[in-house]
Amino acid sequence: MVDGPEPVSRALRAAPPDQLVEAADRAIRSVLGATRTEVFIADYRINGLWPMLEPELSPAALRAHEAAARRCFSSQRPVQIAADDGRCRVFLPLSVWGERLGVLMIELLGAPGPGDEEQAVDIAGALAMAIRAADRETDRYRRARRRERLSMAAELQWELLPGRSVEHPAFHLAGQLEPAYTVAGDHFDWSLDGERLTVTVLNGDGTGLAASLLTVVAVNSMRNARRSGGGLTEQAELASDTLHYQHRGRRYVSTLLLELDLRTGQVRAVDAGSPHVLRLRGGTVEPITLDQQLPLGMFAEARYDLQEFALLPGDRLFVVSDGVWAASPSGGEPYGDRAMARAMRSTRLQPAAEAVGTVMRELHAYHVDTDLRDDAVVVCLDWHGVRGRDAE
């Protein structure tokens, strides 16, 4: 058995981007004396974990790993399962900066020895980073994530996302799009830069590819202003002017822009006819009331004002689009009236990445298993406070 995870890291650096899981398999067998490995990738809806080395794994074999892999993925902690023949399967989360990619399974002849699990965790981290980096060079991992064909609009939307979750000592942040394979205009974006976290959530206008293209222009306009050093008002105004120049007010995008000061918990906001913001504090869900301004692109040279509110350590913010808030299947009560708050309260003990899935699952259940009629976005931000930063 070879000491340390460095041989695995070297093997990953030397491997072609589409052969990372095979390179990791060979190196892990050498380093840890493993008899078998498998990499499970989470799908777009985060409903399943799918094998890469043996994609044709039988349903029975898949079920044998499913519970442990799901427990590892949800808890983001290693899980050990002892087999009847004395072998031990170790399941490890594949995550990069809080972005949950999947699970690595390593099968050993017996229980891990001293230091083996720590090595395995380091190996999983190196593999996750490599897969994340390789994503732009190969379609292999993206194909594993999709359980059906994406619409063209959805292809654009998923390509535009910054990720689905991110962790920091001061905050946790996660988002989810639905319907995952046909989403069009609704979207979210974020960026961490020093002492500032910027989050935008868009409630797209229209359907299909036209809605997705509108969102692409809006998101990239805001990114352009942000990356040039512009604040929230500059981001909103550039996006609004760009959209109006293209569509002369016929198309526009309702958008919420948030900027969290990581030193103080103070939030600046531009509410451009926005998605809805709700705060979960203790067991109480209440809306954050902001003065709505014009959606981006509605009028030429629209100008926007900043508003502010404060977060306390332990606060959880949800931002939802109209497809969540106003969902009313069969003409019933809108999801946002009561059912959504119940779903949000039920997430109190879950991390942000699990909470967005809970709210989405409850939304699907509210539709009584019928297809969502509108795009839906849920973003969840947990503010841990300045004390969280002291752990850095």
TrEMBL record:
Keywords: Hydrolase. Residues 168-383 form the PPM-type phosphatase domain. It holds the Pfam family SpoIIE. One of its GO terms (molecular function) is phosphatase activity. InterPro entries: Bact_Sigma-Reg, GAF-like_dom_sf, PPM-type-like_dom_sf, PPM-type_phosphatase-like_dom. It comes from Micromonospora avicenniae. It comes from the Bacteria. This is Serine phosphatase RsbU, regulator of sigma subunit.
